[in-house]
Amino acid sequence: MFEWIGIGRYVSGNRFLHKMDPRCKLIMVFMFVCLIAFTPSVWMMAVHAAAASTAVFSARIPISIVWRYSKGILLIASVAALFQLVSHGGGDTVGSAGLFSISEDGMKQALLVFGRIMLLIVSVSILTLTTSSSDLAYGMAAVLYPLRVFGIPSERFAFLIILSLRFLPVFQREIHHIVMAHKARLGGLRRSGLFAFIPQLVSLFVLAFAHMYRRAEGHSAGLAARGYVMDAERISRRTYRTGWRDAVGLFIVVAQYIVTFV
Question: For every one of its 262 residues, what pLDDT tens digit does the chain have, with 9 covering 90 and above?
């Protein structure tokens, strides 16, 4: 249950994407998300999907991991695509079923919405699967550094985002342990009816959040014991430098922009 929560995990490796500068990876993912959000063509969406697949293969990320993390959002993407399919009426009518009619424009919008949602999850998952927590924290703090001009503490903001991302797998494990314990005692969640199932699910989430709160308190005490100060000046133990890999990655994303909109 909740095995689809893949954002926040890290798969160690020594491939092309693993060696890229975290700042460039964050900028690339942001540019790619903006690109798929405004792509007007189904064929170009297929090109972007091929580029994301190439990134997965080049990083040697097992397909089973990507599928396990993507299948949970598949239902949401399918429902959104179905809504677009029956709500848009432009173009020639392909078919009809009762009060609903399917048009060419509806099919196009359905494919675009489905591709956008799935590629959004896949691209963010690739980022977290190929970037460690410390690299993500540094890259995010560096990218958000200009916000200090407006009085926004970029390092604190980045620290909170990284903690939230890394707590997602912990939340998944807590849910899994609680469900397994529930199965051992009562034989699992009873789905006899919606009104009977919802209270069981709510109690499960309340218990999981209580466990997470205790775990968060433990992490907070650990940071305090190590003398961690949120806004103190720090020197990274690693030196991050942009290289030819970052230039190639940015060139590929910019080339996709040119092919899509020019």
Answer: 455 455 557 788 888 888 899 989 999 999 999 999 999 899 999 999 999 999 988 888 888 877 777 777 888 888 888 888 877 766 666 666 666 677 778 888 889 999 999 999 888 888 888 888 778 877 887 888 888 788 777 777 777 777 777 677 777 777 777 777 777 776 555 555 556 667 777 777 787 778 777 877 787 788 778 777 766 666 666 677 888 999 999 999 999 999 998 7
Which value, in Å, is the radius of gyration of the alpha carbons in the chain?
A: 22
**246, two tokens:** 């970052």
Judge if pTM exceeds 0.85. no
Q: What are the start-end ranges of the H helices in the chain?
A: 22-38, 42-58, 63-70, 74-87, 104-129, 133-143, 154-186, 194-225, 244-261
